[in-house]
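Q: what does this look like with pyridoxal-5'-phosphate bound?
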Amino acid sequence: MKLPDEQGYFGPYGGQFIPETLVSVLDELKQKYFNIVKRDDFRKKLNHYLKTYCGRPTPLYLAENMSRDLGFKVYLKREDLNHTGAHKMNNTLGQVLLAKFMDKKRVIAETGAGQHGVATATACALLNIPCKVYMGKIDCVRQELNVFRMKLLGAKLEVVESGSQTLKDAINETIRDWVTNANDTYYCLGSCVGPDPYPTMVRNFQIIIGKETKEEILKVEGRLPDVCVACVGGGSNAIGLFYPFLDDKVKFVGVEAGGRGEKLGENAATISLGQAGILHGAKTYILQDKYGQIIPTHSVSAGLDYPGVGPEHVFLKESGRARYEAATDTEALEAFEYLSKMEGIIPALESSHAIAYVRKLKGKLDKNKIVIINLSGRGDKDMGIVRDLFEAKNG
Ligand SMILES: *Cc1c(COP(=O)(O)O)cnc(C)c1O
């Protein structure tokens, strides 16, 4: 059965939990999205940019040294080689092109760490559409290089000074703008979260990861992999890899941010440690206190630091189709160094969580087993923080 259903539900999760003012806006988006993605001219144009601008298809690399070390075959899907250094570009290119086809005149987005802001600003520069990015004041200070990147790319930055001055306040401001200017404005969301149809749209723009992977592995190995592993923040790179293998005998493991430990507020392991609730327009799992208040999360990787998760992942977890594990900050940092030395590839801290999980399988899998890891991004953006942490550790 293909999910979601007509109302945007993955089992009991997903849907639209939104103010009245957004109902017609989301209806329009949903209807236009499903019409436009079917059109030849849209698909041709998107494929053209994915190929000549983004650099797709990305390679599937047999990590020889890592395979020798762990005792089974490890392949890396090289999303780190995408333009702007991560899988996020697959989604922003798709959505900003959709905005153009919908005749929208401006694009808005919110960003926490700034990676989605940069990917949106990039697509908007390419497609000549004005872009405004909302970002909390504290996040702007923490991620000043991304603030500079966005400005350089021509985006207008709106610094949000309300509330906690972080992502959740930036989201509120973006929605306010959207409700006010819905006629000419497109809201570009960064992961498979939010109200229907966003989880489906974002997934569908990321499915290219899994489609290519399936072709590539069949070509080199003549068979499907045994396990697919990806890190999970909102869950878009993971669902993009998993989806084309849904009906196959392939195991899925999503790896969340275990942070500093299992205590509330010390991690961002939403599926492993959260409960059902409503966040950002959808029913999903969230990290909340006993009064249902969202709690601040922690992860060494900014891209996994989110108190919710895509509703489709919750469905995959509850139905037993996928498993979700957590890797701690320390394990992720060790994996970061491990892959750098082992393969000459410096991974994003987010992707390092997936590497960390697979390292734990050493000696537990047969030597002819095939594990595919989605290397969602490259680590250049993380150099500053990793250097500081290594220096603190080594004195
Ligand atoms: C943003 C980001 C993630 C987390 O987002 P998902 O929607 O869970 O994929 C993972 N890896 C990298 C490199 C990112 O930039």
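DSSP finds 15 helices and 14 strands in the chain. The longest helix spans residues 198-221.
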